[in-house]
Design brief:
With 304 residues, the chain is of the alpha/beta class. The chain has a single domain (4-235, 264-303), classed as 3-Layer(aba) Sandwich (Rossmann fold), CATH 3.40.50. Helix content is 38%, strand content 17%. It has helices at residues 13-24, 58-61, 81-104, 140-156, 177-186, 205-217, 235-245, 257-264, 269-272, 280-283, 294-303; strands spanning 4-8, 28-33, 43-49, 54-55, 65-68, 111-117, 129-130, 162-167, 169-171, 202-204, 223-227, 276-277. Helix 7 crosses helix 11 (294-303).
Length: 304
């Protein structure tokens, strides 16, 4: 009998690509959705309502594994007080809903794999390489990720193996960071942001999905793992490389920091700061990144 993977946030960018990979590998997939959807071959949809803490509990009861991707997009809207609360609650409350159903039925799954982010190390510029044993930062990004991971601790207390994938900037043509950049760079209007010196730890969407699958099938994996390439890519390097893929050299000056702060408000830290991170821990489990060269990764994304 095929093993079933339950995915929260399964209709998002990562979820769609992960679903395709899991189906290719012979799993069935269940997806938690806020709206009713028609089942497809080997893909089953279940409704949930995080705000009211309700869901079709059969989704959890049928699961062998859970991959938890649900959460409001942190870069979609300005960080008002209301938006910040929604970002945190969407991560924390969705995790606690899954926990409550697991606990209620004493359901034992093989692993609970959750998304997290390298933002846990904070919106800070610097050359220090961040490893998984570093404490979370005291800023909004660090606090959000820590609250998210703390909620996963409740599931760990059920004696369920838990893995937290701390993701860098995800590269893929249809979504992720490239979705906003492609229209500018395609028409030769791209440029670096702010100082351009901020680091941009990145990961190709195929490698990220492979990391989730790796966490599912490797029982020795437990706890947090950085999922990003540590190749010293700065915003300037990233911008120049993307322009090169489109066949030109950047001719526009850097977008000034003050302009980005005016347009984006506090959320501008997402593009004006960046940390270097180490992926040694996940590689020591036998995981191999397919895309470690930025230009090659970008060309692959844009060719799809």
């Amino acid at each position: 009998m095929k093993k079933n993977v339950l995915i929260s946030g399964g209709s998002g960018f990562v979820g769609r690509n992960l679903t395709a990979l899991l189906l290719e590998k012979g799993y069935t997939v269940s997806i938690l959705s806020r709206s009713e959807k028609q089942n497809k071959e080997a893909v089953f949809y279940y409704k949930w309502d995080v705000e009211n803490q309700t869901m079709e509990e059969e989704a959890v009861l049928n699961a062998d594994y859970i991959v938890h991707l649900a959460g409001e997009n942190i870069g979609e809207e300005k960080w008002t007080a209301k938006r910040k609360a929604a970002i945190i609650d969407s991560r924390e409350q969705s995790t606690l809903l899954l926990y409550s159903v697991l606990k209620k039925h004493n359901k034992k799954i093989e692993v609970f794999v959750s998304a997290s982010a390298v933002g846990i190390y904070g919106a800070v510029n610097g050359s220090e390489i961040c490893t998984e044993d570093m404490p979370s930062a005291n800023d909004f990004l660090g606090y959000t990720c820590q609250k998210w991971e703390d909620a996963i601790g409740f599931i760990e207390n059920l004696n369920i193996r838990t893995v937290k994938i701390r993701t860098g900037l995800v590269l893929g043509k249809d979504d992720g960071v490239l979705k906003k950049l492609i229209p500018l760079f395609k028409y030769r209007l791209g440029s670096a942001l702010g100082s351009g010196k901020q680091y941009m730890p990145w990961i190709h969407i195929d490698d990220l999905c492979a990391a989730y699958l790796h966490a599912i099938v490797n029982p020795e994996m437990n706890g947090p793992y950085n999922a990003a390439i540590n190749d010293n890519t700065t915003n300037t390097i990233f911008s120049k490389t993307l322009a090169c893929v489109y066949g030109y050299a950047i001719w526009l000056p850097n977008v000034p920091s003050f302009v980005l702060k005016l347009v984006m408000g506090e959320m501008s830290v997402i593009v004006l700061t960046g940390r270097r991170v180490s992926a040694d821990k996940i590689e020591q489990t036998g995981f191999k990144f397919k895309f470690k060269n930025l230009e090659g990764a970008l060309r692959n994304c844009l060719a799809k």
